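#struct-help
A.M.: can someone run this one for me? Single chain, 450 residues.
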Amino acid sequence: MRASELFGTATFRLAVFFALAVSVSTAVVFLFIYWQVATFDVKRLDAILVGEVARAVTQPEDRLKRELELRFTSDLRRLDYAALFDNTGKLQYGNVAAIPKDLRIDGAAHIVEARSLQSTDTGTEPAVFVAGRRQDGGTVLLGRSLYEVNALRRVVFEALMIGVVPAVLLALASGIIFSLRMTRRLKIIHETTLRIMRGDLQERLPAHGKMDDLNYVASAVNLMLDEIVRLLQQIKSVGDNIAHDLRSPLAAMRTKLERGLVADSSKELRAAAECALGDLDQALATVTALLRIAEIESGRRRSGFTGVDLAQVCANVFELYEPLAETKRIAFTLDAPVPLPVFGDFELLVEAIANLVDNAIKFTPKGGAVAIVAKMIGDRPAVRVTDNGPGIPAGERNHIFKRFYRSGKTRHVPGSGLGLSMVATIADLHGFDLRMEDNRPGAIFEISPS
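D.P.: on it. Structure tokens below:
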């Protein structure tokens, strides 16, 4: 990868931002530590000297001189300043020739420049001084060089600087490595996406190793591609089935119209036109059913789901088909003793149960029986539609919910082969299970929440 490509990636910019954040946070910590080191020792020294001067101004002169002498004896590094002046400002004892001009005699700590006590240094150095007035008018002066404090500050500063630079470099290096890794993966995903866009729908985004954010997204996209491929295959299958199922009625319609046109009487022409209209109605019914299935599969009606009583759904279907069952002399019964609340679309569930009942009445011979049962089966509500018609052979039961599929036993009965496919689509939209069992004779269809 070229450097220009690397620097232009979002991951590299994130790495730079991370390095800057580390630098800023480290600088803040550095400033806090440096400030604490720079001020704490000075404040502690101020408090000690102020207390010592407060005691010294009340002590007798001979005792004060002994304490000053002891102070000089223990000061092996020559950092302490101490002196006693009379009321005229003349030095009586100590290692400070005169009271510094800028020092106020107020018993408080002040930082002033003083002659260095180091034998190899003839210049001045900053020191903390405290001067207090005695009762006899004399002055006690105590102080300490800031050499150690400044040396500690330099050590802390150098140590922190040594730590900051590697931390920033490590953050940048980690960011670059992370950026290269992520960019390589994103490039592979981009190239795979382009191949998919060109029509290679069998390609899948790489999603291997530990499941991180990219792998989660890639897995979701792969699932989406699987569903797209499934839908495209279904569309192709539907197109083929439509072409196959519409070709026959359209061809028959054309033949009948051609025969009517060459007929000698208007009566024959009228009969041919009526037959052609019947074929056209069958074709339109097929197209309407397909459009209805497509509308249901879109899932747009899911947002309008509410509480629905399955017992009431079955009662509506029973009322609708009871006259048809009486006409065919079929014993039609309803067993829905108690409400069965579910979450769904009332009209769609009526349509699903109605398709099952319509098929049952259509294929059940005269004198047969069709029943709707809406009860709790186990721990969940369920609707069963049973009949004692020809039933469905075991070898065909895995195909009956496919579009345009018709069992060999029922091909002589008019229909589009889309009724059960619509029932399966509505059940899938609701997340319901749709099962078929043998009624010996006949069939049992059951719909229940998963």
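A.M.: thanks! The first strand starts at residue 80 and ends at 85.
D.P.: also worth noting: The two ends are 51 Å apart (CA to CA).
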